[in-house]
Design a protein that fits this description.
heterodimer; A: mainly alpha; 0% strand; B: alpha/beta; two-stranded antiparallel sheet; 5 helices
């Protein structure tokens, strides 16, 4: 029975190199074939827009409310939700969608609540007109009240107070002190 | 008389403010009764993608979740038990939103989730479904129409009732507890 001879130093090095090469090749082929079950595609890169499209996207983002924030637009918020919405806005702008189409898309999912400024139609007109109506009503009230005040007769002057009694009293006290 | 009118107007304004402040916060859901937005997402369990269209003909329980969401832990086992009870006649789909892949996988392992689970990689599904936070669950009928939306964690009773409605084709209003939805407000990287 002969014992296997230990590999010589150069032979051992070749074995290691071969093993490493095998592992590298196996990893590379597994990745190439998409067989790595731990892989989830990374998020797509940001959508590139022309300067005009950037302007439109910014306008739309400023128009949309961040649904999970308090009084913040999609443009000013840094929440996850706002970032996702911003990406969708940019995608739609890049696809050539108009401002109205993009607004309709978000309204169809979140309701009118998602738009910071309501549309100028139907009942929504009250939101636009009510402040002006209140200001006009207030101004009219001030004018009416002021005119009424002006129209009133001036208050009668107070009856003349006879000061002789007080003068006599004063003189008496002065004499007493002298 | 004039004073009475002024007092009445002021009382009305105060009552209006009080009502506005005290009323229950509800989340609008224009999607109920409409076609479920299509989506395609990579699955955690296999190197494949799931398209909602592939599930046409099967009722779908579509749940949005995240590993960082506390309420999602409450409903994780409810959903898995539901899948074991109703699947595959009812498809259960879980979409992880704004989550890290490793954290999602740990969550799936910890709670033994076995139904169709994938990631909303670019956040498009969250926007398409008008999401406010997690967990939220949509019930989609065989024809691909959203019949109901549940906000907050599902209990077993909620799930049973919703699936019964789903199988009967009943459209219902939004239900759930908005206070238990964790909004997607965490700042991005």
């Amino acid at each position: 029975m002969t014992r296997p001879r230990p590999a010589s130093r150069p032979a051992r090095g070749a074995l290691w190199a071969g093993a490493i090469a095998l592992v590298v090749v196996a990893l590379a082929t597994t990745r190439a074939a998409g067989q790595d079950p731990a892989r989830i595609d990374p998020a797509p890169p940001p959508v590139a827009l022309t300067p005009e499209q950037e302007e439109l996207a910014a306008e739309i983002e400023s128009m949309l409310k961040c649904p999970v924030c308090r009084s913040q637009s999609v443009r000013t918020s840094r929440s996850f939700m706002a970032e996702d919405m911003s990406r969708r806005v940019r995608e739609m702008v890049a696809e050539g969608k108009s401002k109205e189409e993009i607004r309709d898309y978000f309204v169809a999912r979140y309701g009118d609540y998602i738009v910071l400024a309501p549309r100028k139609e139907g009942f929504a007109w009250t939101v636009w007109l009510l402040p002006f109506a209140l200001v006009a009503g207030g101004a009219a009230t001030i004018v009416v009240v002021t005119r009424r005040w002006k129209g009133r007769a001036p208050p009668a002057p107070p009856p003349p107070v006879s000061s002789s009694r007080w003068m006599n009293e004063l003189e008496r006290e002065l004499k007493e002190t002298e | 008389m004039k004073r009475l009118i002024v007092v009445l107007v002021l009382a009305g304004v105060v009552a209006l403010f009080a009502w506005a402040l005290s009323r229950e916060q509800t989340l609008a859901s224009p999607l109920v009764g409409k076609a479920a937005p299509p989506f395609s997402m990579p699955l955690f369990a296999a190197d494949s993608t799931l398209e909602l269209a592939r599930l046409r003909g099967t009722p779908v329980v579509l749940n949005f979740w995240a590993s960082w969401c506390l309420s999602c832990r409450d409903e994780a086992r409810v959903l898995e038990a539901g899948w074991e009870r109703y699947g595959p006649g009812v498809a259960f789909v879980g979409i992880a939103v704004n989550d890290e892949e490793r954290a999602s996988r740990d969550f799936i392992r910890r709670y033994g989730k076995t139904y169709l689970l994938g990631a909303d990689v670019d956040g498009s599904a969250a926007v398409d479904y008008g999401l406010y936070g997690v967990p939220e669950t949509f019930f989609i009928d065989r024809d691909g129409t959203i019949l109901a939306r549940h906000i907050g964690p599902l209990s077993t009773a909620d799930l049973d009732r919703r699936i019964a409605e789903l199988e009967a084709g009943v459209t219902s209003a939004v239900s759930g507890d908005p206070s238990r939805v964790q909004p997607l407000t965490i700042e991005g990287p």
